[in-house]
Design goal:
By secondary structure, this protein is of the alpha/beta class. It has 5 helices and 8 strands. α2 links the parallel β4 and β5.
């Protein structure tokens, strides 16, 4: 009997190991997802919720811009020095064609330096130089930081780090709903 069991076990061995490997991959993927969630939650710990603070300023182009009730707005805190912002900014630029975007360049130099950066990268969204530390009032300490403000002036979504244009568009649509 024992030789029959050994024979059967040796025949089943190739089928058992891949299943264990699969479970190991699933376990590792779940741990990575949990770690990513914990890291993002930690990064967003200071980002404000609830009613959006007033936001009214002059852009680097000299035009007045303000956060107004009645329109869904994407608020984008970023920096010319930020490598992740260089990935996210083109996506914000594509969203800015269809939705209101107010961006705040944090620690990025003078208005002329920011405008030069915008021109070099072909970005078309409005920019405010963060001379008044607006990022602190909004609790943005990790960049890029994105807030979606709904028509009632409430922050509906917030995120930090890289994101996709379709993710921003989906959040903007949900905020308008």
């Amino acid at each position: 009997m024992s030789s029959t069991f050994k024979s059967l076990a040796s025949k089943l061995k190739p089928f058992v190991k891949p299943r264990r490997k699969r479970y190991r991959y699933l376990r590792d993927a779940a741990l990575m997802a949990l770690l990513a969630f914990a890291l993002l939650s930690y990064q967003q710990r200071n980002m404000i919720s609830g009613e959006a603070p007033p936001l009214s300023a002059i852009t680097t182009q000299g035009q007045p811009i303000a956060l107004k009730q009645g329109e869904v707005t994407l608020i984008y805190f970023w920096g010319t020095w930020c490598p992740i912002c260089r990935v996210t900014s083109p996506m914000v630029n594509s969203v800015a064609g269809d939705h209101k975007v107010i961006s705040i360049a944090v620690a990025s130099g003078t208005d002329d330096e920011i405008n030069q950066f915008m021109t070099e990268h072909h970005y078309q969204f409005d920019v405010i130089g963060d001379e008044e530390a607006l990022h602190q009032a909004w609790g943005a300490s990790v960049f890029p930081a994105i807030y979606i403000v709904d028509k009632q002036g409430l922050i509906r979504f917030k995120t930090s780090g890289a994101t996709s244009s379709w993710g921003m568009r989906l959040r903007l649509l949900l905020a308008a709903w």
